[in-house]
Amino acid sequence: MNGFGFRLICCAAAGVLDQLFADPRMMHPICLIGRLIGWAQRWTRQLFPKTKGGERAAGVYLVVFVLLVVAAVVCTVTVGAYRIHPACGVAVESVLLFYALAEKSLEQESRAVYRALNAEGLERGRQAVSMIVGRDTESLSEEGVIKATVETVAENTSDGVIAPLFFALLGGAPLAYFYKAVNTMDSMVGYRNEEYQYYGTAAARLDDAVNFIPARLSAICMLLALALAKPFGDLRRKRQSRDREDGRAFGFFGRAQGIAAKARQKNRYGISGEWRKQRMRDIFRIYRKYCRSHASPNSAQIESVMAGALGVELAGPACYFGVLYPKPVIGEKTRALERADILRSISILRATAYLFWLFGVIMLGALWMFS
Q1: Residue closest to 133 by CA, chosen among 286, 125, 251
Q2: C-beta separation of 189 from 37 below 8 A
Q3: pLDDT averaged over the chain?
Q4: Residue 265 above 70 pLDDT?
Q5: Domains identified in the chain, total number
Q6: 340-370 helix and 299-310 helix, angle to the nearest 10 degrees
Q7: Within 10 A of 248 (CB to CB), how many other CB atoms are there?
Q8: Residue 227: which domain range?
Q9: Strands, E assignment, the chain
Q10: Secondary-structure percent of the chain, ordered helix, strand, coil, rounded to 5
Q11: pTM score, whole prediction
Q12: What are the residue ranges of helices labelled H in 160-298?
């Protein structure tokens, strides 16, 4: 078996493990990378003067040091495991890749916000959403909590699922952890505030670069997932019955209800099919219009698809560390956000992740067979 075969098994196993066990909280490699970044930040800032140039140089040193350490450790562990025995190498690399993926944990944490809002109200919902977003949540309205959750699901569809899997398909665990180290540095120091405005420049720019292709692949894959989905009749007009928590009665892969369901009963390929095509044209139009709305070259790519799919507005001004940052709105508001949108966004996340994972496994299988 060649390298493509081993990588195929590892990526497939990592996806299965992620669905079975989500994200273990003990001894997580990403937490260790975060601790390394925290220590390196204190060290590098002591080496350079507190000037604009000095801060930027310190940030470059941080990036180089962290990436070298992470690459050396992951390469040593994986190569050593394969030298012991190929089965040992596959097992170790599969576990490492499992830790790098976050689809199931993102789904669980987002669903926890929905449950908190339903069961305990707004205050508990704010606490739940604060666990998965970086913005200030103390003064968010219910719609703000829902919007923050949906935006996080959209953003992390790329950052937490598609991008790590993309780099894993290209280079296994070492390249996947290279990406995770870059992404973690950006989430810790890549802020445009007084403390990190210059120090975090290198990490933020590198994160933009490594996410350029995965962000666009994520948007394309999400569009394909929506195109393959059943007609979303529950978003076409106000629902006639309340959404159930498990999401089976609504969403993009549940039983379509309302007018679209009646249309399918009358003519399987008639009215509902035409409406579906028009809906996909609207989603693609919104994606094209808003995919470059953010200052970041990548952030709006997948948020614009999510906004178009749900028919709502996302993004807009948000508070970070007590400072209000103006951000452009993404999408066109055809209705108000509602709690069920959290579950709908999870359905889209799951479909996008499964589709990309399937494409990746098929690609590696073809390379393995013909190499």
Answers
A1: 125
A2: yes
A3: 84
A4: no
A5: 1
A6: 120
A7: 12
A8: 3-370
A9: 314-315, 318-320, 323-325, 329-330
A10: 70, 5, 25
A11: 0.85
A12: 163-189, 201-210, 212-228, 258-266, 271-290
